[in-house]
Amino acid sequence: MRGMPKALIFVIDMAKREEYSVLKNFLTKGGFEAVAAVGSRDVNINYNIDFMTMSVDQVAKVAEEFDLLALAGGYKIYYHVLRKKPPLKIWDLNIDLEKLNALIQHFYKTGKTIIAPLAVPGYLAQLGLLKGKDATVYPITELIKILRDNGANFVNKPVVKSGGVITAKDITTTGEKEFLTILRETT
Question: In this predicted structure, what is the pLDDT of residue 92?
């Protein structure tokens, strides 16, 4: 008999501190065992998995152990998606895109749920994963344009489910009941 489903929360950046804790809380309340992973040393959380110490193949193998992927992108993803330089020199956009993409592609190709809040839907759109799908994103003109330019149908709602992808404008302001209802419909 299999235990509770497992959710992998990849914390790319902690700039929006509540993003990780809200995702973890929602997933736990949704019946998932939530496991945190990091890909850089500037993420200040307790984590179980360190992608910095793994090869791309090992990252994909870890993905096989999970039923759902949630991405906490913070400002790193925001500036990467917009192709802008961060305003502060102390911000390093050290995202290992090869590992991130291997992780995302594994979940997408195997039909497992991906949760993408804030600017992360823009990144998924740039990868071509939202083409023909409904999606929402943090409500700034540039991110909405990125969704549309990459074939996604922007929907002005707090949380949107399309296929196995759940997008959220701002997970920290999304209602728990609304999120859990959509999560249960998807998983």
Answer: 65
Who has greater pLDDT, 89 or 110? 110
Strand order in the sheet with 33-38: 49-50, 33-38, 6-11, 68-72, 113-117, 165-168, 159-162
What tens digit of pLDDT does each residue of 149-181 get?
Answer: 999 999 999 999 999 999 999 999 999 999 999
DSSP for residue 131: T
Whole-number pLDDT of residue 1 = 43
- Give the torsion sign (CA, 111, 64, 40, 72): positive
Q: How far apart are CA 151 and CA 147, in angstroms?
A: 7
DSSP class of residue 85 equals -
Q: What is 6-186's CATH superfamily?
A: Class I glutamine amidotransferase (GATase) domain (3.40.50.880)
Cα–Cα distance, 81 to 62 (Å, whole number): 25
